[in-house]
Amino acid sequence: MFKGSIVAIVTPFKEGKVDEEAYRELIEFQIENGTSAVVPCGTTGESATLSMEEHARVIEIAIDAVNKRVPVIAGTGGNSTHEAIELTEHAKKVGADATLQVTPYYNKPTQEGLYQHFKAIAKAVSLPQVLYNVPGRTSVNMLPETVARLAELPEIVAVKEASGNLAQMAEIVRLAGDNITLLSGDDNLTLPVLAIGGKGVISVVANIVPKDNAEMVKAWEDGDLKKATEMYYKLLPLCQAMFYETNPIPVKTSLALMGKISGEMRLPLCEMAPANLDKLKKALSDYGVI
To answer: What are 98-118's pLDDT values in tens digits?
Structure first.
């Protein structure tokens, strides 16, 4: 159902509020440059610091701005199943095409708890669901066997895998490749994930170079392995730069340097350290973005 370069889009702020005008312009920038789908309110969208009202509004803006040109996969996960269902109900009501559901964080559920959590959301809201496994942030790793169980539910259509463990991702494809789409959750591993059967990436770096990221995945789909490989290695230093500090600090700083947003973040995220900022500017300059 979902493939290609999918952007985990930032949420621009201005004077403490969501900058709707800049957000709409970012979405146009993505669609004009070949992005396959837009994910509002993911990790890169600073969902953890959005109020419930802001969360709902950011999703509404995205759906309105996209206007059915590409799918909108709304980030509506949470560490409370009840809250995740509430957010997902709203996303469906306002026209989201699918939902991104992160593994519950901090409360560290068991594998059975993970299964019951995602199943409860699927049964409460009939909307395609993309699972999101990112143990580096959540302190829980969803195992391939659990993904395979969930893939038997018709609502579960894809998994964004950000564990960094290619063997684990390959096991998902082996166990459930006919039932679920594997998407890379790490720009540094996009090409390797495609090579083991993945269909695309939910990307941070696509915020700043959507065209190149989309062309890389398209080249792989078209069987042009030489071009895909060349573009992967061209993009790799920029992908690495997006994690000089905690995401989304570098990518929002990059967009600010490109003149697209103010670069404002919400505490506890803060401005980059000067040494890292200098490294980021060099990476952007070397790539030709600034």
So the answer is: 999 999 999 999 999 999 999
Residue-number span of the structural domain to which 97 is assigned: 4-224
Which residue, chain included where needed, has tokens 């000067």?
274
User: Where does the pLDDT of residue 1 fall: very low under 50, low under 70, confident under 90, or very high at 90 and above?
Assistant: confident
Which stretch of DSSP H or E encloses residue 6? strand 4-8
Rounded-to-integer distance, Cα 6 and Cα 187, Å: 11
Burial (Cβ within 10 Å: 0-12, 13-18, ≥19) of residue 278: exposed
Strand partners, 5: 201
SS3 of 250, please?
helix
In 3-state terms, what secondary structure has residue 140?
coil
Question: Which residues are catalytic, by number?
Answer: 132, 160
The answer to whether 215 and 207 have CB atoms below 8 angstroms apart is no
Residue 85, domain CATH: 3.20.20.70
Give residue 143's identity as a one-letter amino acid code: L
